[in-house]
Structure formats: C-alpha cells, structure tokens
Amino acid sequence: MKVLFSFFPKQDQQTSLMEKFPQADFIFRKSLDEEVLKTADILVTYGEDLCASHLETATQLKWIMVASAGLEKMPLEEIASRNIMLTNARGIHKTPMAESIIAHILSIKKSLPTMARNQRNGEWSRKLNSSELFGSTALILGVGAIGSEVGRLLQAFGVRTIGCNRSGKIAPSMDAMVPFSKLKETLPDADIVISILPSTEETKHLLTYEQFQCMKQSAIFMNFGRGDVVKEEELLRALKEECIAYAVLDVFEKEPLLQGHPFWEMNNVIVSPHASSHSSQYVIRALGIFSNNLTEWLNGSDQLENIIDAKRGY
Amino acid sequence: MKVLFSFFPKQDQQTSLMEKFPQADFIFRKSLDEEVLKTADILVTYGEDLCASHLETATQLKWIMVASAGLEKMPLEEIASRNIMLTNARGIHKTPMAESIIAHILSIKKSLPTMARNQRNGEWSRKLNSSELFGSTALILGVGAIGSEVGRLLQAFGVRTIGCNRSGKIAPSMDAMVPFSKLKETLPDADIVISILPSTEETKHLLTYEQFQCMKQSAIFMNFGRGDVVKEEELLRALKEECIAYAVLDVFEKEPLLQGHPFWEMNNVIVSPHASSHSSQYVIRALGIFSNNLTEWLNGSDQLENIIDAKRGY
Questions:
Q1: Which residues form the D-isomer specific 2-hydroxyacid dehydrogenase catalytic domain (chains A, B) (predicted)?
Q2: In chain B, whose CA is at the least distance from the CA of A158?
Q3: B253 three-class SS
Q4: Complex ipTM, two decimals?
C-alpha cells in the first residue's frame, strides 16, 4: 500500500508514521509527484496542488487526506465521480485561530498599537483611551468549530455572544442565534463582528456597504474566514467614512494583498497576512488525525474522522 | 455631614451621589482642599495627596475612602493613631488588569508587534514565528483578586496555572500553589511569569538576576504589581543576556520611566506606562463601592466593603 505526501513533514514526524505503519510504503515529496501518484493508494496534500487531470491516471487512488480545512481548490466533482474517499483536518485550526482573534480584539481594546508607537517615541503617556472587553457584545458569523471556540473564550471574558448562520439553529457557546436573514437587524447590537464564514454561494458578498452602515461606529469588524464574504471595495469605503472603528483582516479578495493597496497604510485596519491559523502544532495535529484514520482504514472501518461529502463539498 | 472629594467625578456621577444622599453635603474639588478638609467628615481621594500634617487640623475626619488599591502614599500611622476608618477600591482593578495581561501575552504569542512592523513596511510575510498559548504554564506571583482573575482566564485558554504567595495556601483558579520559599525551583517550569505583588518588606527585590537565570530562555516575564519587586538593573542585565525572551512592564522603580532608559529601545521589552488598570469603568466602579459603603455607614453599620487595617496597611 502506497501513501504519497505532496509536502514534506519533519524527519521525526515521517519516522513516527513509518514506525506505526510498517505495512505502508510512505513516499514524502516536497510537491505533487505525478508519476508516483499514478500508483498511490492514498494522497496526503495541503489541497492546493491537485487538478482533475491528475485523477485520470491515478487509477489506484482510494483516499485523499487534505491536511487543512479549505477545499476550494480541490477537484471535488472528479473526486465524487471516481468514488475516492475525501477527509480533511477540520478542527485543527480552532485553537490558533481563536487565540489570534482574541489577541487582536484585546490588542485594540487595550490600545497596544498606540502604546507601541509611544514606546518608539520614548513617550510616557497614560492617555491611551483603553476600553474593556467585559460587558460587550460579539456577533459571530459562522459557528463551526472555530466560531464556537471563539464564543467560549469571549464568554469567559464576560462577552455576550450572538451566533449567525444559515439556519439560525443553536450552536455551542452562543448566548443567542440568528439566521442570515436577520443579520441586518442584529448588526447594530454588536461591538465586535467576526466572520469565520467559508466561501459558498450563500456567503459570497454577504457583507456590503449596507451592512457596514448598520454596525456601531465603535464596532470592530474582523474577517478570518474567506475574503469574498466581504465586498472589499465597500468595506474600504465604510472605513474611510468611519462607519466603523476598526477592521482586522486575515483574508482578502486577492492574496497576497496587493502592494500599494490602501489597507496597508490605514490606521484603522490591521493587515494579518492570512496568518491566524499558523501554529507550531499544525502539522502534528493534522498528522494525528491522519494517523488515527489510517488505523481505522487498515482495520476496514468506515468510522473515519472528518469524512467530506465531495458532492456537497463539506 | 460633609463629604470632600479631592478629585472631580463627571457631572452625572456627582449628581447621582447628591440625589442618593440628600442629607450629605458633597464638595467636589480637583485637588485636596486643605481648608475644607478641616471640617470634613469623609474624604474621598485617589490616595496620593494626603500628608500626615493634613490630619492634624482635620479634626472632624472619620473616614477616608481611597478610590484606588495602592495605599503606599497614605499616612497610615497617623490614620491608625487618630482612629480614622480607611477603605479602598480593592477589586475594581481585576477586570481591566486581567484583560491587559492577557492582551500582552496573546500579542507576543501571536507576533502582533512583528505583524504591525511588516504592515508599516507594506510587507506580506506569513513567517511570524507565532506560538500557542494553549498548553503552556503560567506562574502567578500574588493570587488576590487580580491574580485569580488572570488565572481564571488563562485556564480558559488551556494554560496550567501555578500560584505563588507567602503561605503557599490554595487560591482560586490555580492548578497548584507554591510558597515564596519554593519560587526558585518553580521558575524553570513556567512559560510565563506574572507578578502582581504589592510592595511589602517581603516582596521587595524578590526577583533578582538569580531568579531570571532560573527562568526558561523562552519565558515572558510580566510585572504588573509594583516596580520594586524587581531589581530593575538585574532584570536589564538578564534581558541583555537573553536569559528570558520578553519583559512586559507596567510598573518601574521610578515612574514615569526616565527618558533615555534602555527599556524604551529594547525589542524584548514592552513599556506599558502604568496603564493596565485604566478603564472607562474605573470611577463608576469605585464610586459604586463608596456609595454602598456610605449607605451602610449612614445606617450605623460597620459591615463596610474593603475596610483596611491602617496599622497593617492591608
């Protein structure tokens, strides 16, 4: 049985897999090796290197493990039509992303950027206009693993959490829930609006100038899901007009963010270069999911973690 | 009954006190009015303006409310010998201070200062060397209201909390406790060392070069208690020698921090200008405690909140 990796884990991570599964033939490559793929049973990929055409000759392929959460670049139709099992690493982002989101919120609330500027100028100034997170209200768009973890941490800080998704059905760590259709009337209540939405037909351009106008002038807007949930030009307009106080953006319509884009120089924008999910624990956790699943699979079980319906894409 | 304030609350805060206590004669001044003090029954002060000599002529004074937590600048002996009741606003710092402490920790863990520098340079760089707070260990020196609140929040982030005080007796939100005498042997376990200790004979210069040498090279040291708990010159040496990774300092031996002090320019030091307890809610909360206590006092009760034994100083 041949397991092809299209990325290169650390030596000890490779060794640990080979020791645990002596029956498997692991082939680690720094990118997708199309020759090896033709005879591989399993492909482990970050999900950005596989095309439909690759699958035509990958006649042995039974399982693709995507070691990330995003599946937008995967040839889902071909995977579905060839009955290849698809799993991903959903859930491993929740700890680093929730920590990043809370980090940015507290940094703004406690005026850390101003404090840093004062330090660079050698200026002892206690007038920082800090405010408290305690007692504020957060609206969380997207209440999966990450959104719920953000909600749990915010609740620990005494924040009221309102979740928002398609159905409006209750989710963990949310004090209240609203469906997308009630978004506009809920926006004025929120001190912090956090999108962790994936890119789908329903979420694309969910947030336009109209929505930003409904937010508090003191609101912090955060996009940590996908760039196209926001009409970027309209967010820019709202920020220039100071409809809201701050935007913290981890994702953009085009990444990397273009040189010379106004966001780089705006005092009310934090540019986080799609970095919020980074973690020294990332590969370890993704390989942990894969390793557990491989044990199940070798035992003939179909009780694998994070199986994706390729037809639906989630 | 005459109540003298040596600071000036907002108009609505003044009005609300006057309406609640029509029997009292409130006199609000921007600094200590020594003439009015001679006939005042109650003094409400931030605790930095009263000398022993003032008390000699304040013959009517029965109660001093200090609208902060620090009592170092109060003439405690004279207050004790004249049997004046002393209360303070202990506890109101816990929310803003704990939020500030977590803000700084997450900011460092998530490399927000590097991210901000990259943004100023228009540089999209995902190599930020971020790490996770989850799974780390924090040693909290001083486990009163603030330390316990910091412990509670850290535990929510999956941090192991070790408290440290004189007795080593268990305190809320601590996974373990050690007494000061076991400090040195506990320091190597901690990823984050946070001092929220007051200035007393026992805590003065508790942390010297020797203690910093025991910490992890990757450790973040935070002083949010009192400056003289640390031998500042020895901390400076430890930082220059990179015995530890970061110091976040809200308090200093001399405040404001002197112009030209090396801390201002060090990349591994965050200078927080004694700002961590600031909050828009500060005066509201302090006056809340005072107002409740005044009701009790007018009813002849001695069940007041935060009564201080002036002889002991706490």
A1: 20-302
A2: B95
A3: coil
A4: 0.87
